[in-house]
Amino acid sequence: MGLRLLLLPLGCLALMLRSPGVAEFSPSLDSDFTFTLPAGRKECFYQPMRKEASLELEYQVLDGAGLDVDFHLLSPKGETLVFDERKSDGVHTVETEDGDYMFCFDNTFSTISEKVIFFELILDNMGEDGQDEEDWKKYVTGTDLLDMKLEDILESINSVKARLSKSVQIQTLLRAFEARDRNIQESNFDRVNFWSMVNLGVMVVVSAVQVYMLKSLFEDKRKSRT
């Protein structure tokens, strides 16, 4: 069983591999990642969180026999918060404390089939919005002469930002659903073709046997006696 630790900086996911072609996520409160989990392996990730923040994690098995995987979510104290056994997808939200949260995808129960797994992290109340609000308040001077307060503008902007983030999240999930459905359809297509060829071969063999048996019934057996 292999255990790969991926360190995730605050507010984003960063893939920390020592192999060539290191990949990183751009800083964002919403991050998603798709990776291949080999048979008999376990992959773990870390996400630093702040106190009284919110961590939402959604995962889906896009491809692989059974479309299932074991999922573990552990607190900074090592306590198991979530354990999903051989599930194809899941959505979990936890209120966090200071520390590194670890979540693992376990495919050790499979000896042959690898799994393609998609997951998305959504981090809320990480403190960045509060900092933006403080930056806005620096310019709230003499705004009583304006019809619209800067707080109202900030509220509207935050509302638009939240809706845009939600739209991006939904589009990402739809792409994941589409990828999983496409993999299922391609697998079914291969199975239908395989069994169609098997049935065709059986029909050819049965037809040949029937022709031979019918032909043998009408053979002149007197020739064989002479």
UniProtKB/TrEMBL annotation:
The keyword Lipid biosynthesis does not apply. It is found in: Endoplasmic reticulum membrane; Endoplasmic reticulum-Golgi intermediate compartment membrane; Golgi apparatus, cis-Golgi network membrane; Membrane. One of its GO terms (cellular component) is Golgi apparatus. Belongs to the EMP24/GP25L family. It is a single-pass type I membrane protein. PANTHER family: TRANSMEMBRANE EMP24 DOMAIN-CONTAINING PROTEIN. Keywords: Endoplasmic reticulum, Membrane, Signal, Transmembrane, Transmembrane helix. It comes from Dasyornis broadbenti (rufous bristle-bird). The chain crosses the membrane at residues 194-214. This is TMED5 protein. Pfam families: EMP24_GP25L. Residues 1-23 form the signal peptide. InterPro entries: Emp24-like, GOLD_dom, GOLD_dom_sf. Residues 42-123 form the GOLD domain.
